[in-house]
UniProtKB/TrEMBL annotation:
<keyword id="KW-0131">Cell cycle</keyword>
<dbReference type="InterPro" id="IPR017871">
    <property type="entry name" value="ABC_transporter-like_CS"/>
</dbReference>
<keyword id="KW-0547">Nucleotide-binding</keyword>
<dbReference type="InterPro" id="IPR005286">
    <property type="entry name" value="Cell_div_FtsE"/>
</dbReference>
<keyword id="KW-0132">Cell division</keyword>
<dbReference type="GO" id="GO:0005524">
    <property type="term" value="F:ATP binding"/>
</dbReference>
<keyword id="KW-0067">ATP-binding</keyword>
<dbReference type="InterPro" id="IPR003593">
    <property type="entry name" value="AAA+_ATPase"/>
</dbReference>
<protein>
    <recommendedName>
        <fullName>Cell division ATP-binding protein FtsE</fullName>
    </recommendedName>
</protein>
<dbReference type="InterPro" id="IPR015854">
    <property type="entry name" value="ABC_transpr_LolD-like"/>
</dbReference>
<dbReference type="GO" id="GO:0051301">
    <property type="term" value="P:cell division"/>
</dbReference>
<dbReference type="InterPro" id="IPR003439">
    <property type="entry name" value="ABC_transporter-like_ATP-bd"/>
</dbReference>
<comment type="function">
    <text>Part of the ABC transporter FtsEX involved in cellular division.</text>
</comment>
<dbReference type="InterPro" id="IPR027417">
    <property type="entry name" value="P-loop_NTPase"/>
</dbReference>
<dbReference type="GO" id="GO:0005886">
    <property type="term" value="C:plasma membrane"/>
</dbReference>
<comment type="subunit">
    <text>Homodimer. Forms a membrane-associated complex with FtsX.</text>
</comment>
<keyword id="KW-0813">Transport</keyword>
Amino acid sequence: MIEMKEVYKKYSNGVVAANGLNVKIDKGEFVYVVGPSGAGKSTFIKMMYREEKPTSGEILINGTSLPKLKNRKVPLLRRQIGVVFQDFKLLPRLSVYENVAFALEVIEEPTENIRPRVTEVLELVGLKHKARMLPTELSGGEQQRVSIARSIVNRPQVVIADEPTGNLDPETSMGIMNVLEQINEMGTTIVMATHNKDIVNRNRHRVIAIEGGLIVRDELEGGYGYEI
């Protein structure tokens, strides 16, 4: 599903955030990306949805070469990828329903398909009863659930989550993890960058640890491995 081959990323300020990354992630895997601050985790994640381009090397998502992809085709790529951010990125003037529906409207999904799809994912994340509320009327955990619903409404093959529990309390974080686990069980590949030691140690999955732009550990059912 995802493959990196000899991927390097050097920023204009001289910082090397990826120093020869080689990794394969299979369809249906759940992978944590961990490491100290400044290790290169965010760059690793952003390169997967073409927010950043590598300086050299190859990145493949379901057979598509990201470095070679023309800019006008990036929106098409992102229909295959759902992205969940730490700060939700919801549209404040749109309701819960409208925020999720917007992800389908921008890809010109037929109108008759939108309502059942939005209703389905809101039910999955437990927010069907709050469909008409605005983001400001929701808790942080509920806003993140809306963000997850929006990321999966177009049925992507991969969900990339960048610190999705970073702004949430422990109990709410576990609720978000339950939702992500459900999505993974339905066959969606999930790659999640996190600093949350408790989540990684409790919900065991493959762990890729990055330090200094290098993958220093890659283990199935791994633990967090860092003191925080």
